[in-house]
Design a protein that fits this description.
30% helix, alpha/beta, 6-stranded mixed beta sheet, single chain, binds zinc ion, 8-stranded mixed beta sheet, globular
Length: 338
Amino acid sequence: MKTTSLRALVAASLLSLGPSLWAAPIASTPNLAKAPPPSETPAAATPTPLSKPAEAAPAGPAVLEAAPGVWLTQFTGMTAVWADLGDGIVLIDTGGSAKDAKALKSFVSLTAKDKPIKWLVLTHLHGHVNSAEGLLDFLSPETTVYVHSRVSEAFKNAVVMMAREVPPTIAVSGTMEIKGKKRSLELTALSSPAHSNHDIFALLPDISLAVTGDLLTPGSCPDLTDPSADLVGVLAALDILEKKNVKGIVGSSGGSSDPAAEIDVTRGYLRRLLKLLFENKQENTPAAKVASIIRLDPLQGYCPTAMDSRNAISLYERMGPDGRLTPGNAARPKAQNE
Ligand SMILES: [Zn+2]
């Protein structure tokens, strides 16, 4: 994950977003005060900045209203999105710490005017998007949790281990819909490992917005260091996403109103890595040398060299001579049918 400051991340997201989808940013924290309205002039292609210059801006994360009734905020390493479906709020991911979760809860409550969080979608169970402590704060008998079927039993067991009541839980496989009275959310659970072995991405069809978690991270290369991460799986996920033909994407690193370009650049990165790793595997190149090859070919801006190397080595060590990846030894949540 990028370690850029939160303010820079949010600002970068805003600059990369088109005005149509992102016309009404809200400055926030702690009071969610309304930012000045964006300029009406058609020439103003850049959305109104979320915050005033740093010295005048309040500290803390910020909330954007991406479309009427759809909001997002960024914490380090993740973006949380929530939407009013008419008869309740759906929240996608809960934050990487108890502190972030607490802030997120107050943002949801303020923006959604205390409508209940009726549905909670977990794109995956990495701590940087859903920390255990933070997630617990959102569990309630009134909130139905949607989690990939491959880890739904592990999720419920973990809740029991933490001495909490297991909430209503839906094991997501394939594609399904959460239907609200005014709007729906489509979920796609990937059948193969990609960023993790239990990725879900979400789609708000009425505003043509995909929430991709860590599968597609606008402006930066995906993190492939999970012991079950798979390059081919991410490529397959991009194919599925491409067919959805969305107009906007929100990933853990921010948002983009040019999904086709983001998909292209991510594909290019994955193919480069796949080719480089496979060719070196054929020649039995030591992992240390692969790392130095990566360092000689820096991807300015898109993928910090340290992260590029981490991705490469993590995958290379699990790659067989045929180019296939075997899952690593770190705890792999058990599939329901395993
Ligand atoms: Zn992740």
